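Quick one: structure tokens for this chain, please?
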Amino acid sequence: MPHLPLRNYLEVTVANPLNGCTQLEEGQRHLETLVVVQRGDCTFAQKVAIVQSTGAIGVLVVNNDDKMITLMVCGVADSCSEITIPALMIDRINGEDFLSEVSIYVGGLSCEQLSIMDGCHK
């Protein structure tokens, strides 16, 4: 596991594209940040590997529906031996609340950027 610098805060960024399934937007580096991605469209291992390649120290996967959170596993076709950063998943409602709080510190995100489902969580 990489050495994490001691500090009293954690920088959080939101992946673009949000699903984290393709190379992130050009120039989007996440050195020493926690990167938030949306569940779906590709495997957890693919998301984490892509985010890790940008220099992130962890991944927070926000569930894309209201169903119970499933176990994040490495699929048969995935190569997880190269993944060295932690990843965890939270449910959609808590994920949207978390993103809402984060948006206060990153200059504000629109309702559409914060919403994992149709419309914003109220």
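Residues 92-105 form the longest helix (14 residues).
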